[in-house]
Amino acid sequence: MMILPLLAALGLAHAASIDHDKVRPLPQTIPEGAQGELYLAYQPRLNVVNGCVPYPAVDAEGNTGAGLKPTGPTNSSCTTSEGQIYVRSRTDEDSTRTALMYAWYFPKDAASPGSGHRHDWEGTIVWVSSPTSTAPENVEAVCPSAHGRWPCSTGDEFSLDGSHPLIEYVSRWPMNHQMDVTQEVGVLQPLVAWESLDEGVRTPLAETDFGSAHLSLRDGNFAEDLDSATY
Description:
The chain is α/β, with parallel strands linked by helices.
C-alpha cells in the first residue's frame, strides 16, 4: 500500500493560506555536522530600521502566511514576531567557493501608507571561500538583496559580529524595502535549511503565489540569483 505518499498528499491538500500572525515558526531545522555549523556561523544578524519585522512564511502543517494589505503605517499589524530565516547553499563545481543564500519573509512592503504591496521576500547571499571553515576571514563577500539585484560588498565594506554579517532591512523613501549592510548589530531568527524541510512544508512554500515578492530559494530562481551576485 502507498501509505506514505498518500499521507503526504493529504497533508498538502489540507495546507491553507492563513493570517500572517497565525503562522507558527518552525524550530531550528538544519543538517547535522559541518553543513549545519556553516549555516549557523554565517547567519546574518538583522536590524529592522522601518517596516515589518520578519515573520514565518510557512508552518509545520504547510500553511502559508496570507500577508497584509499595504495600508496604515508601514509597520502596522507586523511588529511582533519571533520570525524565521531560511537558508540554501551551493558550492562551485570547480572550487570550494560556497554561496549561502539566507532569506526572510515580511507580510507587506510599504514605503509609506497606501504604497507598496502584500508580501515581501528579501535576502542576503554570503560567499565563503571554504564550506569547511566557520572563521570570520572565510567570508569573501556579502550581497544583500535590493530591488531585484544583489550588490556585493567585499573587504572592509561589510561588518561582522563574530562571523555573522550585519544586515539591515530598510526603506529609503520613495523606494520600497531592501536589505543593506550596516554596522548595527541586529538579532537572529530560528534558522531553517531548505533541504531539511519536509516535502509537506517545502512544497507549499515553493508553490505559494507571493505576488510581486520574489522567493529566491525556489528552484527556478535560486541559481539565477546566485549567478547575479558577482564581485
